Amino acid sequence: MFVRMSAAIAAICFLSGAVLAQGAKLTDPQIAHIAYTAGEIDIKAAKQALEKGHSKEVKQFAQDMVRDHEAVNKQALDLVKKLKVTPEDNDTSRSLSKQANEKYAELGKLKGAAFDKAYIENEVAYHKTVSNALETQLIPSATNPELKNLLQTGLKIFQGHEQHAEHVEADLK
Amino acid sequence: MLSRCAAAILGALLLVPAACVPAAAATIQITMENLEIEPAVASAKVGDTIEWINKDVLVHTATARNGDFDVTLPPKKTESVVLKKAGTVDYYCRYHPNMKATLKVAP
After folding, report:
1. Torsion angles phi and psi, residue B10, rounded to 5
2. What is the pTM of this model?
3. Residue from the list A68, A75, A167 with its beta carbon closest to the beta carbon of B97
4. What is the Cα–Cα distance from B97 to B78, expressed in whole angstroms?
């Protein structure tokens, strides 16, 4: 069971890595859309954890995720408004959402400690994937300096959350 | 004349206590901005006040690894702590553990 689950997680990490690493140079409106979507996905996952989570620590972590990603996405919306950029949906955003929806359904079948474990494992993997995409693709491709700055802050947030999730994961064991 | 005299005496009275007090306690400001703690290494003395200024839209904490302090910093807020113990304290943000800094407190 656990082996199958980690294999599934590995497959998802591999997939998202591949999706995010692929090809053509992204435009600022696309980058803004991807970054915003990445935050929304984590908020949705956290809300699921607030409902289904078992341990106090996992719920607290989920609460932290909602708070941070909502705050940053608000900043992102303010910035795109100021820059008069309309975020543009794209293949990367769509595959991120598709994978996230699959994960959401998968986690929805779990309960109690099994849910907590799977949620936190996915949080570690997800934040790692997004950090990597920000670092290697989104930040280098962004042309507007203010957008680039916000993405750089976003990278530190995702890296921070990844470490936070690793701490929670270690405590669950 | 009298009033000038009084002013001089008053001035002297004000000066004396100030000169007698040991080194005045200082306030040291440390900012948290874009998930960076600046300065990353700060020096202070026992009795000084540390003022953490959170310029981010996120909640941060200044959490000492040795348990000496654990300050929660709401977005765009400043919180302070008066240092009571000497020593070198490493601290971090519980919500973003990649935010790390050191406080060197002299006796």
Report:
1. -60, -45
2. 0.82
3. A167
4. 20
